[in-house]
Design goal:
It contains 12 helices and no strands. It is mainly alpha-helical. The chain has one domain: Heme oxygenase-like (Heme Oxygenase, Chain A). The longest helix has about 35 residues.
Length: about 250
């Protein structure tokens, strides 16, 4: 497993250089403007609950690795509620027509974020080997620590500005993430455990492929969020007219 963890570390270093993470920490930009992309992240924040419950979790099980994964999914699968609370506290909880909401959630602005969700589901459901599921989770956890480290700074700035506390977009979220599968062990114990797992040549090859695919999908998603932040303000967090709506109007 060490070869797989080494690749995850390498991809983490590349991932951390994406422009969004510097943008989130940039004190020269109003904190509220730095969070204007938050609605665009809804497909992932909400789908992550189902990914844990229906794709990564497998019960009942007698496999100790799968049991570790199951424990992890119960903790990680609850964070969507924090996202909803933060959206409310940021006053982005706007009234929209149902059709407008659907156009946004399945529109061009969120297509790469949705693709990330589909990719993670496809990868997770296709793995019968819990060790390969571990490669998926470890990759997700590492991308999470990168993003949440940047969000910790943003969350602090938001709290100072709004006098409200945040849980998803803040240091609170980072504080409950270990950077490893959360199976009830300490970070050090989990780290040693993972490094000592022996994979076959075939498992290693497949795990390396999985790691690259997960990081590629997360990279596309983060670039989409940055594009959204470049083109939307906190005062107008949703597009005034969606491309799909414009196309529909031209055909009427």
């Amino acid at each position: 497993m060490k070869e797989v963890l080494d690749l995850i570390q390498k991809r983490k270093e590349e991932f951390a250089k994406l422009r969004l993470f510097e943008y989130l920490k940039d004190e020269s930009i109003d904190p509220l403007e730095r969070v204007a992309w938050a609605p665009c992240f809804a497909p992932f924040a909400m789908n992550f609950k189902d990914l844990n419950a229906y794709a990564l979790r497998q019960e009942p099980t007698t496999d100790p690795i799968q049991e570790m994964i199951n424990t992890h999914t119960y903790e990680d699968g609850q964070h969507w509620a924090w996202y909803l609370t933060d959206i409310e506290r940021l006053n982005i909880d706007l009234s929209m027509r149902f059709t407008e909401t659907l156009r946004f959630l399945w529109g061009d602005e969120t297509k790469r974020t949705r693709h990330l969700c589909y990719d993670l589901f496809a990868l997770s459901l296709s793995q019968t080997d819990p060790l390969l599921k571990l490669a998926i989770i470890e990759s997700i956890e590492v991308t999470g620590t990168v993003a949440l480290s940047a969000l910790a700074k943003l969350g602090n700035d938001l709290e100072q500005l709004t006098k409200k506390h945040y849980r998803y977009l803040s240091a609170y979220h980072l504080g409950v993430e270990t950077g490893h599968v959360q199976g009830g062990q300490s970070y050090e114990d989990t780290d040693n455990f993972l490094k000592n797992i022996q994979l076959t040549e075939q498992q290693t090859s497949k795990a390396l492929e999985i790691v690259n695919r997960v990081f590629d999908s997360f990279t596309d998603c983060v670039k989409e969020l940055m594009d959204y932040a470049d083109n939307h303000s906190f005062a107008q967090p949703f597009p005034k007219i969606h491309k799909s709506e414009a196309l529909l109007q031209t055909t009427i």
